């Protein structure tokens, strides 16, 4: 207003139209602005305080969770037992230092069968390719013609004859009393073993309970009924008999021997072992530590009832080859034969086929299986005719899905049909593998620690090596 009065004085007397003036806000109108700024600042401070408190709470919660989980991990990894009778955590404890936990660094190669009739090319000897044909998928079974040469078959049979063939004891015909002398059981002891209820009499059902014998050998009720009838045990037909058992009426009609294939063995035997290693594609150490070569001769009438080469392995069962390394006492043991390689050393004039009663069956039923292959060969799903030099091999166990031995393959049931004419010569090479990887690894470790001189005790002297002969090779 003061400025306006001055301007009016200066312009007095002249024509002047004052410009429109903006209304001035009174001082009281500025106060609400100051009050609003103060309120906004206070609101911002309060919000920030609450935000920082929230962040601090979140961080505290995360720290608490992390600390609590750390305490649980520490308590679970502790070896001290929990107090107050509380059950311990279910996690498996680490084995003690006395039983090292071997890392599974070996995987067993398993050949694929593809389909029945499929033929694969395999290189087993330098300069020659063999054909391997799939015969069945259950069990996984293959056939390799010409695996052995004619000369190799002859040498193996000659070495077996030189070594000496022992009688295989399972069941024998009347008139073979001398063979029965090899048994250490008296007639009374045999009777007491069969007389389950110990009533002093031998009933038919008591004999039938022994249809399952050692090493997976099976006898059917029909077989055992023939034994019972052959004993002339039930003259009055009432199913009972007093003890009149002869030792000569037990054992089996075949002869066998074992041929060592390690250092110092005959060149042919070592070459066969190396060929088996290439065929199965297994580590050489497994083949080297397996059973020796078994050679078997069946005369006319000879047979082998249906059986499994290896039995199932349960927690209370130990494998024969690793039993000592396991260092545990078990009531049962079995021959853990992962693979069977069967060689035909001659062509049989009549009979003698290897029968697989349930090969590629849709199901396996013990009640309907023709276990007596010598009497039911024509009922078997698959029969392999013995041909000189040919080899067949199959897996007695399934895979565990992780490169090791799994459960027993029940479809590997097999037997030898009756030789109706001539003589039958075969050889068996079994590859022993314990389904328990730790026991197998411990066994191989113990064997590797043996001094070389302990493994060479049976080797010929230097003088003999310089003058090799078939006797010295044995």
Automatic annotation (TrEMBL):
Key words of the record: Calcium, Dioxygenase, Iron, Membrane, Metal-binding, Oxidoreductase, Transmembrane, Transmembrane helix, Vitamin C
Transmembrane regions: 43-67
Single GO term (MF): iron ion binding
InterPro entries in UniProt: EF-hand-dom_pair, EF_Hand_1_Ca_BS, Oxoglu/Fe-dep_dioxygenase_dom, P4HA-like, Pro_4_hyd_alph, Pro_4_hyd_alph_FE2OG_OXY
Cellular component GO terms, alphabetical: endoplasmic reticulum
Entry annotated with the keyword Magnesium: no
Cofactor annotation: L-ascorbate
SMART domains: P4Hc
Name used for this protein in its record: Prolyl 4-hydroxylase, transmembrane
């Amino acid at each position: 207003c003061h400025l306006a009065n001055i301007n009016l004085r200066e312009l007095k007397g002249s024509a002047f139209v004052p410009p429109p003036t903006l209304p001035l806000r009174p001082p009281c109108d500025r106060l609400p602005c100051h009050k609003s700024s103060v309120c906004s600042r206070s609101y911002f401070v309060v919000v920030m305080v609450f935000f920082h408190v929230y962040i601090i709470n979140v961080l505290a919660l995360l720290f608490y969770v992390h600390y609590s989980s750390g305490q649980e991990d520490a308590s679970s990894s502790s070896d001290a037992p929990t107090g107050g009778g509380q059950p311990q955590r279910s996690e498996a404890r680490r084995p003690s230092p006395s039983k090292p936990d071997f890392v599974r660094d070996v995987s067993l190669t398993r050949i694929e069968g593809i389909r029945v009739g499929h033929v694969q090319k395999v290189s087993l000897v330098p300069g020659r390719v063999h054909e391997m044909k799939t015969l069945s998928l259950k069990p996984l079974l293959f056939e390799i013609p010409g695996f052995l040469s004619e000369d190799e078959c002859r040498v193996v049979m000659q070495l077996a004859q030189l070594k000496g063939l022992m009688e295989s004891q399972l069941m024998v015909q009347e008139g073979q009393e001398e063979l029965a002398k090899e048994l250490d059981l008296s007639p009374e002891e045999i009777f007491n073993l069969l007389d389950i209820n110990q009533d002093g009499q031998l009933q038919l059902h008591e004999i039938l309970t022994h249809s399952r014998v050692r090493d997976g050998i099976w006898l059917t009720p029909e077989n055992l009924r023939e034994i019972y009838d052959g004993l002339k045990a039930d003259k009055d037909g009432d199913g009972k008999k007093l003890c009149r058992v002869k030792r000569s009426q037990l054992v089996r009609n075949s002869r066998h021997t074992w041929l060592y294939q390690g250092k110092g063995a005959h060149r042919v035997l070592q070459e066969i072992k190396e060929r088996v290693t290439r065929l199965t594609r297994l580590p050489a150490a497994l083949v080297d530590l397996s059973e020796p070569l078994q050679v078997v001769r069946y005369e006319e009438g000879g047979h082998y009832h249906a059986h499994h080469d290896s039995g199932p392995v349960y927690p209370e069962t130990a494998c024969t080859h690793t039993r000592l390394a396991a260092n545990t006492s078990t009531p049962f043991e079995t021959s853990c034969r992962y693979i069977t390689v069967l060689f035909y050393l001659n062509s049989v004039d009549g009979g003698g086929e290897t029968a697989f009663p349930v090969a590629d069956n849709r199901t396996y039923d013990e009640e309907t299986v023709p276990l007596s292959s010598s009497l039911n060969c024509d009922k078997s799903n698959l029969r392999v005719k013995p041909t000189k030099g040919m080899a067949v091999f199959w897996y007695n166990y399934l895979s565990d899905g992780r490169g090791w031995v799994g459960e027993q393959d029940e479809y590997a049931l097999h037997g030898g049909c009756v030789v109706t004419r001539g003589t039958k010569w075969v050889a068996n090479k079994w590859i022993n593998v314990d389904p328990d990887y730790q026991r197998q690894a411990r066994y191989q470790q113990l064997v590797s620690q043996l001094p070389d001189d302990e493994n060479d005790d049976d080797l010929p002297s230097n003088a003999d090596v310089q003058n090799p002969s078939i006797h010295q090779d044995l």
